[in-house]
Amino acid sequence: MVRGPSANLSRRTVLLSGWLISSLGLVANAAEKTTPLVERDLVAAIESIQVEDLKTHISTLASDAMQGREAGTTGGHAASAYLMQQLRRHGVAPAAADQTFVQEFAGGMRNILASVPGHDAQRRDEVVIVSAHFDHVGFGTPRNSRGPIGYVHNGADDNASGVASLLEIVEAIRKLPRPPRRTLLFAFWDGEEKGLLGSKHWLTAPTRPLSQVKLVINADMIGRLRPEGVEVTGTRAACGLRHFVADANSATIAPRLRLEFPWDMRADSDHYPFFAVGIPALMLHTGKHDDYHRPSDDADKLNYEGTQRLARLMLLLALQTAEADELPVFRIKSRDETNDQQRRIEQPLPSPAPRLGITWNTQLSEQGIVEIIQISSPSPAASAGLRIGDRIERFAGHAVSGAADFRSLVVIADRDVTATVQRPGRSEPLELSVRLTGEPTRLGLMWRTDDAEPDRVILTQVTPYSPAALAGLKVLDRVHTFGGQTATNEHFSGAAASLPLPITVTFERDGVISTTSITPIMPAAVSVKRDRAAINERP
């Protein structure tokens, strides 16, 4: 197929360039004497993954002619023949025994294996497996179908979506002027629906030594992308895998995918047998639905643009891990981690106690007026003599121009401040001395560390209206760099206390890496930065 360059290629190249240079080594290596990858090459490969091609592959694999692709049947063999036809068309090397694509095993089942050998003499014996299962449940049985049985279960999402994406990734890799440093093994597993049989068989009869397999990236049911995003399971199986995934996601063409990172590892797809033997494994999944294991899982119900985005993410992830100087080893502690532990550990800390103890009129605050309507007792406000009806005009030496403005002033103020108020019945403003509760907030951050995410800190509290909150930081953001340096716990602790503002922060949220700047609070400008939905919170 012939495709012209995208009209948006230059803009997209700019979006990708920073990541490409740092992650894929787009500089010629004189020692290896290889042709360097250039930005245009990689962007062209990414853009070669097209919706129409995905539709072609999925509509073929999920057609009635394939009879539901049950492992070991005529329909399953027809699907494997289609895969081999596509692999030959792309000129990719067979990776089973005797230079064939087929690895036969029990009951006429067959894995289809292909590879792109790595170009780096020091890394080509290391392998990254990119995989998807091509079998489905045929006409269904009471054991594997949610009904009705006796009809073709086409399995468009499960898992023609993953298989089509893998075929497109193979084509994209072949478009590059050189392969990555490590070998990529493309595995189309059979027998997954019968108990992960294809991947289990490969582990008992591997076509590459298991010691060479550094990572598995598996795609299963990636055809129904929804607003809640994509589950990426397995990032805790090796230290730093979450960063590899987020880095690849942040390099994809916008909009970025929203990613979730569950801790549980379940034996529900072909990533799990590798995890069980101590090989780091990732699984991408867009979630189950009402058509799961039913005849109605048809090609016309898929989100093809979403599948395209997933395939492009997998391409970048495969390239990034295949090009990395080092890949992390299996993390034994991941065997015992659960989603229940995740929920407990990631429970946000409560917000700090109010420093002043007042509530104001939210309707007037829309006009930039802070008028007290309630005073807690006891509280610093009550002790200072503030009254209901007082309008606060100045606080801690700054004019108050709105509720958000005032809220931030309370957060950063020293303990002893002066409040200037206009009181009903008085012609002149009244100055009151106030001793606030607690200490002033410098940045408004608390954090923890996690051995599965080294050289990161995870935010557990972001004080509302603090400098960090105004910068857009949120609880559970993963801080990667802080003030231009890697955010180790030691660096972060010292820098958070002493580094002068502004501080540039690179962080990851929901699988997307972003940059912001924590700047000194400028009271007159605070109110235009903040969402007015929270202006009635007590300071």
Task: Produce the secondary structure layout.
Layout: H1 9-23, H2 39-47, H3 51-61, H4 74-89, E1 93-94, E2 102-105, E3 109-116, E4 127-133, H5 156-175, E5 183-189, H6 197-204, E6 213-219, E7 230-233, H7 241-251, E8 259-260, H8 272-276, E9 281-285, H9 304-323, H10 339-345, E10 358-360, H11 362-365, E11 372-375, H12 380-384, E12 391-395, E13 398-399, H13 403-412, E14 416-422, E15 430-435, E16 445-448, E17 457-462, H14 467-470, E18 478-482, E19 485-486, H15 489-498, E20 503-509, E21 512-518, H16 523-529
Parallel strand pairs: 4-5, 4-6, 6-9, 7-8
Antiparallel strand pairs: 1-3, 2-3, 3-5, 7-9, 10-11, 12-13, 12-14, 14-15, 16-17, 17-18, 18-19, 18-20, 20-21
If you had to describe this structure to a student in words, what would you say it looks like?
By secondary structure, this protein is α+β, with helices and mostly antiparallel strands. It has three domains: 9-341, Aminopeptidase (3-Layer(aba) Sandwich), CATH 3.40.630; 358-435, Pdz3 Domain (Roll); 445-526, Pdz3 Domain, CATH 2.30.42.10. The protein has 16 helices and 21 strands. Helix 5 (156-175) packs across helix 9 (304-323) and helix 7 (241-251) crosses helix 9 (304-323). The N and C termini lie far apart (63 Å). The model is unreliable at 1-15, 26-34 and 525-538 (pLDDT under 50).
